[in-house]
Amino acid sequence: MKATVYVTIKQNVLDPQGTAVQGALHSLGFNEAKKVRIGKYMEIELDTNDRNEAEARLKAMCEKLLANTVVEDYRFELEG
Amino acid sequence: MKATVYVTIKQNVLDPQGTAVQGALHSLGFNEAKKVRIGKYMEIELDTNDRNEAEARLKAMCEKLLANTVVEDYRFELEG
């Protein structure tokens, strides 16, 4: 079963990496880039076929390791 | 117009960050995590309403700055 996890910085938290990328885009002439937010994208191959179990385990992985829930949000999709 | 950009490491390229996260998951007891690949996820607010123009500009941004096309793939979605 394949999982895709998205970890994003919460809306009210500063994103210095996004600000830096926006600055770099502007200096390259891409002035239409008004706001840039950067997150993480993870593909995880899970050795289970039980969807409910996979969801519970993924939630635990996100809470414990993949996301810092103080400043980040996460969501995931399961397929297969 | 809002763009979402996904940058992933090409399939045949080593992903040390993914390997490290997989090791950390295993040491936390998540032995079902068989393969982990890590990429970047970007949300970009574009100051344009022309979809074709936005696509062309995003492609240029990815090629020039957001992705290293030697070792990374990218794809993007546009909405609004």
TrEMBL record, chains A, B:
Part of the FGAM synthase complex composed of 1 PurL, 1 PurQ and 2 PurS subunits. InterPro entries: PurS, PurS-like_sf. GO terms for molecular function: phosphoribosylformylglycinamidine synthase activity. It comes from Paenibacillus thailandensis. Its EC number is 6.3.5.3. Its main location: cytoplasm. It catalyses: N(2)-formyl-N(1)-(5-phospho-beta-D-ribosyl)glycinamide + L-glutamine + ATP + H2O = 2-formamido-N(1)-(5-O-phospho-beta-D-ribosyl)acetamidine + L-glutamate + ADP + phosphate + H(+). Part of the phosphoribosylformylglycinamidine synthase complex involved in the purines biosynthetic pathway. Catalyzes the ATP-dependent conversion of formylglycinamide ribonucleotide (FGAR) and glutamine to yield formylglycinamidine ribonucleotide (FGAM) and glutamate. The FGAM synthase complex is composed of three subunits. PurQ produces an ammonia molecule by converting glutamine to glutamate. PurL transfers the ammonia molecule to FGAR to form FGAM in an ATP-dependent manner. The keyword Cytoplasm applies. Belongs to the PurS family. This is Phosphoribosylformylglycinamidine synthase subunit PurS. NCBIfam families: phosphoribosylformylglycinamidine synthase subunit PurS, PRK05974.1.
